[in-house]
């Protein structure tokens, strides 16, 4: 087994094809194909399903990809260690967040200090955040439920209650509060399964003897916000995520308080990376203040 063979396999897997892997590595497609073929022949294993122009890892390929992700991430950390002075002048920090606005003040400070760093932020629910970190597709996650276990380093940001919200022209816009019983009878707009906000609401409703059945299920917080703004129903969000929107009115829920914790997390094994470390340090300083 050679390094170049593993590298060729890894980039074909993450790029989704031999041509794109060749472009990324500045090699020819035959060279990439040859390295992968030699790896498969040497160990008598099929690493990719090849269907016309579709290339997908087999079960063995998926297992090897989990190993090569760690391997090449460790290599990247070694490069950062050996060139720390350059690491903070260029590079990419990948963040996946269930609500990006929790990051805004931290991103501002980070960009002021390290303007050469490219930051990518994409949205996802709690399940997406966790899986992206484990698969090394993200460096840092932002989520509303602090994970249990010892795999993660955590920086707590805030803790706020879940609230309901409606459009300003909704019949309930002037309501002082809404009970679980009242909510169970109303058209609810809820996020997809996997959302911790939804899970907490449904768990509490069930304990109190009610069932929350969404009239509309939407993927992502922004989709819920837009649907509620149209007057189609009642949405839910943590108070910290409600923000400022002249189209919407917040309504407290008359029930035992449901708190949503918001935190930055990263895998402990990757917390030593220079970019991750300085971002978490800035977050800790700002959270303490």
UniProtKB/TrEMBL annotation:
Keyword Transcription listed: yes
Domain HTH lysR-type: 1-58
Domain of life (superkingdom): Bacteria
InterPro entries the record matches: LysR_HTH_N (IPR000847), LysR_subst-bd (IPR005119), Tscrpt_reg_LysR (IPR017724), WH-like_DNA-bd_sf (IPR036388), WH_DNA-bd_sf (IPR036390)
A Pfam family it matches: HTH_1
Keyword Transcription regulation: yes
Keywords in alphabetical order: DNA-binding, Transcription, Transcription regulation
PANTHER family, sorted: HTH-TYPE TRANSCRIPTIONAL REGULATOR, LYSR FAMILY TRANSCRIPTIONAL REGULATOR
Family in the record: Belongs to the LysR transcriptional regulatory family.
Name this polypeptide is given: LysR family transcriptional regulator
Source organism per UniProt: Aminobacter carboxidus
